[in-house]
Structure formats: structure tokens, C-alpha cells
Amino acid sequence: MKTLSIAIITLALTAPTAAFAQATQMDGMAMGQSGKETKAAVHQATGVVKNVDAGNGKVTLEHGPVKTLNWPAMTMTFGVKDKGLLDKLRAGQRVQVEFQEQGGSYVITSVK
User: Fold this and answer.
1) How far apart, in whole angstroms, are the C-alpha atoms of residue 101 and residue 22?
2) What is the pTM of this model?
3) Residue 105, strand partner residues
4) C-alpha to C-alpha distance for 80 and 54, rounded to whole angstroms
5) Strands 74-80, 58-63: parallel, antiparallel or unpaired by DSSP?
6) pLDDT for the residue numbered 2
7) How would residue 5 be classed by pLDDT, with cut points 50, 70 and 90?
8) Domains plus CATH for the chain?
9) Residue 93: exposure state from Cβ atoms within 10 A (0-12, 13-18, ≥19)
10) Contact at 8 Å (CB) between 63 and 74?
11) Residues 6+ away with beta carbon under 8 Å from 54
12) Side-chain half-sphere of 30: how many Cα atoms within 13 Å?
């Protein structure tokens, strides 16, 4: 009887811990009411266009820090959401861009 009591007490004390651990694993997820992920965050950067690769829909940009991603200034290549944006870009041009993460890559969604 004593062994059964100890087992019940142990179960009662560990069950809430397991439920709490599972709940905290989901705290960092951005979920909408339907359970699907919410829209990707929009980030902004200001920089200079280094290269436009219209054939592959890519732009190389030397940009300043991106605070929302905790990135330092760097040069990197972005895809573009709409290839029509490539018509607005020329090497040496100073631009402000908005971009999002899509499929593990960063894609420019607007150019100013």
C-alpha cells in the first residue's frame, strides 16, 4: 500500500512539470488563431546595389545593420519577390529595401 501511495504522489508531482515543459516549447512560435504560422516579419535595410542579376532574379546589396535581425553591416545577395523590382535597380544606386524570409532565403519585397 505504501508503494502505491508513493507512486501516486510521484505521478501527481511530475505530471504538471511535463505539461509545463510542453507548453513552454510553444511560447516562441508565432501562431495565428487557426494554428498556422503568421505572416513573415518584414525587415528593412539601406544600402548600395553592387550587382543586379536579372537572369536569376538576384540583387547583391551592401547594406547597413538590420536591427530586427541583429545583423551587422554586410554585403549579401537577395532574391526578389517580383522580378519587376529589378527594373528599379542599378549598380551603384543607394536604396532602401524591405525584405522577408521565404523558404530559408531573404527576398526583397519593395524598393524605395
Assistant:
1) 27
2) 0.65
3) 102
4) 10
5) antiparallel
6) 64
7) low
8) 43-111 (2.40.50.320)
9) middle
10) yes
11) 83, 86
12) 5
